[in-house]
Write a structure and sequence with these properties.
alpha/beta; Rossmann fold; N-(1-d-carboxylethyl)-l-norvaline Dehydrogenase, domain 2; 2 domains; eight-stranded mixed beta sheet; globular
Amino acid sequence: MGVSSFPVSTVAVVGAGAWGTAIAAHAARRGHEVRLWSYETDVASDINTHHENRIFLAGIGLPEAIRASSAMSAVVPGADLVVLVPPSGHLRRVSSELRPLLGPGVQVVVATKGIEESSLKLMSEVLAETIPELGWDRLSFLSGPNFAKEVAKGLPTDSVVASKDERAARAVQDLLHATYLRVYTSNDPIGVQVGGSVKNVLAIATGTCDGLHMGLNARAALMTRGLSEMARLGAALGADPLTFMGMAGVGDLILTCTGDLSRNRQLGMKLAEGVDPKVYLATQRSVAEGYSTAQAANALAKLKGVDMPITQEVHAVLHEGKPLLDALKSLLTREQKHELYGLR
């Protein structure tokens, strides 16, 4: 897992959950100077002292070169690349706080996946309000089929980085691409954001399907129909439907719906056991983004007139107390349709 000959820079990772920590580990192994901001002071201390994030990424040794801090002023200034990885519900506050610390030429890449529940805005729309001077020449979005543990271990994976300005996507690609983490570029940040958000809702649905032992046929059908509604929402927001055939669409969907490391899939499995989702989530330190995204995506679909039946039923189970078997019946008894309805 040798370091390549790509340019070396200062990388600030804002958010020390599992995914942010994994990105920091990857960037450090690429030879960059890496600073990591953690909201929790004990996480920052743990990383600096034990070179491990024992709360969010236990059992994974981290490069000693990573320097963590709970003071954003010690992490962001002077960075060439800032990677934003807070939970979607906190991006507005975090980005507002770091705005005065950003240098004039710094590249910003967002690795947060979700839709802001209070406003129904994508992360790009949130940043347009909190850091309006940040144009597409310096802003991009990273997504793909990437479990944090595997990235932190240096296992092979692929990602996609998207911006409306190819220069921004290429800049991030140059900094993060490696033989064990191949980074592709895209000019469709809307599609990449929608794919990275909605797949978490669909993973909850797939977890319930598997938890109820409905079979592999049902799982495949659920994922495929979920991909269709993901593409319908994306197209309504201006995305290229072909984006959902790539890393941020079908790639991330397959991983999150079938991989045992998926927090959203695990939430679905718990629903199938009859566990109250709020009770379960209250016991978890890590966020299952699909819980809040189900609320936001369902409301956004209604606002845009997009048919998203799986998302609608996941929302009803999580947030309205609808019995799981009733939600299943609602899906199975829907009227007949053309396979590509809403996409042509």
